[in-house]
Write a structure and sequence with these properties.
The chain is mainly alpha-helical. It is built from four helices and no strands.
Length: about 110
C-alpha cells in the first residue's frame, strides 16, 4: 500500500510540475521522500512489534498503527520536524503504542 501511495503522489507532483513548468527536482525529491518516510514508519513499527514482542494480538497492533499514524500526522502538520525523522518517529510510536495496548489487553484478559 505504501508503494502505491508514494507512486500516486509522485505522479501527481510530476504532473503538476509539468503543467507549471517547474523543474526544481529538489522540491520533488524532498516531497517524495517525505511521503515515503511517512508511509513506511508505522509499517516498520508493526514489523518490529511482531518481531520483538511475544504476544501481541491483532487488535493491539491495529490500535498501535492508528496511534502511530495520528501522532505522525500531528507532528507533520504541527511541527517543523525534518522529513528523515518521520520513519523513525512513526516506527517508535507505533511500536510503543502497540506494546502498551498489548500489555493492557493481556492484563484485562487475566482479570
Amino acid at each position: 500500500i505504501s508503494v502505491t501511495v508514494v507512486l500516486f503522489f509522485f505522479q501527481q507532483k510530476t504532473a503538476y510540475e509539468i503543467y507549471q513548468c517547474d523543474w526544481s527536482s529538489d522540491v520533488c525529491s524532498s516531497d517524495l521522500l517525505k511521503i515515503a518516510g511517512f508511509a513506511s514508519g508505522p509499517v516498520l513499527g508493526l514489523f518490529m512489534l511482531a518481531v520483538f514482542t511475544r504476544r501481541v494480538r491483532q487488535n493491539s497492533a491495529l490500535v498501535g498503527f492508528a496511534i502511530g499514524i495520528a501522532v505522525l500526522s500531528a507532528i507533520a502538520l504541527g511541527t517543523k520536524l525534518y522529513w528523515p525523522w518521520y520513519a523513525t518517529v512513526g516506527s517508535l510510536v507505533t511500536l510503543a503504542a502497540g506494546w502498551i495496548v498489548g500489555l493492557l489487553q493481556n492484563r484485562c484478559l487475566k482479570c
